[in-house]
Amino acid sequence: MSDNTDPVVRTGRREALIVVSIWLTALTWSVTTSYRLGYNHPAESPEEMKLIWGFPEWTFWGVAVPWVVCVIISWIFGVMFVHDAHLGEELPEETDELGLGG
Amino acid sequence: MMKLLPVLLAADDTSKMPSVGYGALIALVVFIFASLWIGALANRKTREGSFMTGFFLGNRGLGAWALALTATVQSGGTFMGFPSLVYTHGWIVALWIGGYVVVPITGFGILGKRLAQLSRRTEAITVPDLFRTRFGSPTLGLVASLFILLYLSFMMFAQFKAGAIVMKTAWPGSGVLAVNEDQKPFALSEQSLTSLKEDKVPDAVIDKLKPLVGHGFSTERDLNSQLKSLLTADELTESKDRIVKRSKQLDRLYLIGLAIFSLTVVAYTLMGGFLAAVWTDMFQSVLMFFGVMVLLFASLHQAGGLDNATRTALKNTGPGYVYGPGYDDKFEGPKATPNAKQAPRMAYDEAVPREFLPLSLALSFFCVWVWSGVGSPASLVRLMASQNTEVIRRSIYLLSVYNLGIYLPLIVICICGRALIPELPGQTDEIIPRMALLSTKEWPGGSLIAGMILAAPFGAVMSTVSSYLVVLSSGLVRDIYQRFIRPQATPGELRKAAYLSMVFVGTVAVAVNINPIAYLQAFIVFSATGSAATFLIPAVMACYWRRATVAGAFASMIGGASTVLSLYLIGIFEKMPEQRIGQLTGFRPYYLCEVDPFLWGVLVSGLCGVTVSLLTTPPDQALLSKMFDKESTT
């Protein structure tokens, strides 16, 4: 039964799982890093506040860096992992079950 | 349309015309004509195939740019509500939006390919179509289309108001900086105080109202609660009605804006259908990108670099502006008072600061943006229309670059904004227009650039409305008219029905907005999360799970929808103590365990879907084979 499963279903399912794990990783990284560096922070004067390129430290490591990393991952994922596949043809107009042709 | 404009110009009687007013007006007119032109182009392209697939699905020919730049959640709210949040609460909003880092991958990578395949196998034009054929149940299709009609109506009606307001504020006479004073439906001006005097409201009352001048209120209830804190009970009962009446902000310009906006959108969507919606969306996304880039460099230059901007912004506010869980100006910074009074809807622990983004909500939003992007019907339709898998693949990285270029810069711009403009009481929605004005004022042609940036939300709203119009009209025509009323309809009749339904939806939207709905942003949030919680799990089940049954899909839709709806109702009708987290709006949900309703919706939806499917008889093998197995090579 399952041998006959369309390859799109199988690769699609696998790619979906990879994507979900990318999402989970991003979530864990972003939220824990931001929380660790950015929450419950002692009040500081503006002068001694730690900034990286103008970003607060937590934003830099918790949001900006993962964002750039995710762009790269998206590219790798798009180029390397997604299998191109034939999606099937639309039925010719005459055989359209509802007679929408023309 | 063109004939209207000179008349309107003549009707404008104010003499002070800020130069940027023209810039914005010119940009708007360009937008309108570009959209109509795109509509006409799309019209030609649409005629290539059969009417239904052409008009409602662009003959399944979406390319990578079109898919990438239009498939995810971007609406008027993105460019109006989001900047205001950053300006108000500070850097923490970066974490609020943080989920967007993966939105491109999740939005296209999870369902994309399989959904595109499934929609071809089921010959589906609409999302309900897909459910109907995939599960072999017309009733399921009908339920799905009713849900979509409900949610999209909500979202669309809210957008019409936004469109009318942008249109109105771009008007030279209205003066750009009056933008949001007028944006709230209720506000008291000096003039209204004078009129109140004429209404024989006691002077003592009018004196007490003076602090309210210039503040806007989104709802009558907000205004009332403010009045309650200022006036005695007797004064309130005596003059409340007159005060409310005088503070209504509906005027002629708003109605003209509404008319022009609605006519434009309906006209070009009628001409070009789905493709017109997609192409205008793409057009405005590209413009937006350039607008944001220009504004980014201009504001960084003005603020003396980001480092400087962050430090100055912190000086203007307090540490909450840079760190979690976000800045609350009632509790720190120059305006903080020990007994901060902000007319809370329920007296509850007033000494506790409002937390914009506690940890639980940070986690929630990381899920909300991602999964509502995957499950929203408007994104599902785009995927169904994509040309092939290569297009889906390329869209992933196109969109991820685009998002990086929009959201982080918008945050940076607004932080610079807080450094340059320390306070914008009651008008934080104005931050982007104000920054546009401020940072381009010394440039040659600056007013035109500022105008373009001002007009950008208009473009965003217009393209959002037009894509909802297409989905709504396809729902009415395909899922209801053709399925249940007149299955034997000829293509000519379908075309007529499609046009009629669009005009009908447009008319209803205008009618609703003559007396505008408050809570724009909240309506959008409710509908976006509600529709995604309804459709996410059923869509995943349809794509990947053989054992999913009709009953399971039903249970999952209804479970998700009712959970989100109940949590919103509990919040709206104040059945629970006010929670001091999240955005401060009147239309807010109850955050069960401080978690966003969307997550509860998806959880319930998933549980219902899986349990009910397993408890009911497995679906028909022939149907499954048609949906899941290799196509026979005959």
Describe this structure in words.
The complex is a heterodimer of chains A (102) and B (634). Chain A is mainly alpha-helical and 102 residues long. Helices cover 56% and strands 4% of the residues of chain A. Chain A has a two-stranded antiparallel sheet. The longest helix of chain A is centred in the N-terminal third of the chain and has 32 residues, at 7-38. Chain B contains 26 helices and 2 strands. In chain B, helix 2 packs across helix 15. Chain B is globular and about 80 Å long. Chain B starts with a helix and ends in a 6-residue tail after the last helix.
In terms of structural class, how would the helical and strand content of chain B be classed?
A: mainly alpha
Q: Determine the mean pLDDT of chain A.
A: 78
* Radius of gyration of chain B, in angstroms, nearest whole number: 25 Å
Number of strand segments of chain B: 2
**How many individual β-strands of chain A?**
2
Regions of chain A with pLDDT < 50 over 5+ consecutive residues?
A: 91-102
Structural class of chain A: mainly alpha
What would the average pLDDT of chain B be, to the nearest integer? 77
Q: DSSP strand (E) fraction of chain A?
A: under 5%
> What is the topology, as strand order, of the major beta sheet of chain B?
1-2
Helix percentage range of chain A: 55-70%
**Helix-strand pattern of chain A:** HEEH
Radius of gyration of chain A: 23 Å
Total tally of structural domains of chain A: 1
| Envelope shape of chain A | elongated
Residues in helix, % of chain B: 55-70%
Which strand order do you get reading across the main beta sheet of chain A? Answer: 1-2
Multimeric state: heterodimer
> Number of helical runs of chain A?
2
Number of helices of chain B: 26
Runs of chain B in which pLDDT lies below 50 for 5 or more consecutive residues are 1-19, 174-183, 337-351
